[in-house]
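Posting for a labmate who doesn't have an account.
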Amino acid sequence: RPLRSHAMNTLTKLALGLMGQLRPQPATGDAARTIALPPPRTAGGMPLFEALGRRQSRREFATAPLGEAQLSALLWAAAGINRAELGGRTAPSALNAQEVVVYAAMASGLFRYEPATHTLQHVASSDVRRVTGYQDFVDTAPLDLVYVADHARMKMVPAAQREAFAFAAAGAMAQNVYLCCASEGLATVIRAWFDHRALAAAMGLGADAQLLLAQTVGTPPQAGPGG
């Protein structure tokens, strides 16, 4: 069942945000510098149209951590390489800029997904989940994905169109995660309601980075632990 005892309610987060005091918590457990994910499964799973039929947003999550195989599947679905000879990704981007970077906020720290090596690279030894949204469930769900546009990669895209193109790419990634969750029996919800200034500070983002969306993922309540 969901564990709410350490979650901060929405009004408290809003108040802290107004005071500039919404901050991450210390990470728990060992934060490896690099997490080598197992190879993604590129065959099998639920048929596409069945997954589309089961796609839904859910806002209740068990707190059990996801297994490495689940992380591997989710991150490859979001932004993995599916055509090695071209460096092609599972989600499209304008002029192949591949500008959207996926971050994984977990209890053990903040990590950046590197598609070329299919690894999670350690970014911060803090639990950023609380800052990824005003909703209470983001604090204790096992995984909050954050989609960030790196505008330095979009020099071939007209400046007036960069934000729209980046949001379109992030939306495609998020839908891939939705379908992966439908296939794997996981719960997820896409979110755009968060304190941009607080989250950018917690993640240590630079001037060329733009926060786009966040997406919570976890095991549904009363379901078994991750595998």
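Reply:
Got it, the structure tokens are right above this. Helices lie at 10-18, 48-54, 68-79, 162-184, 196-203.
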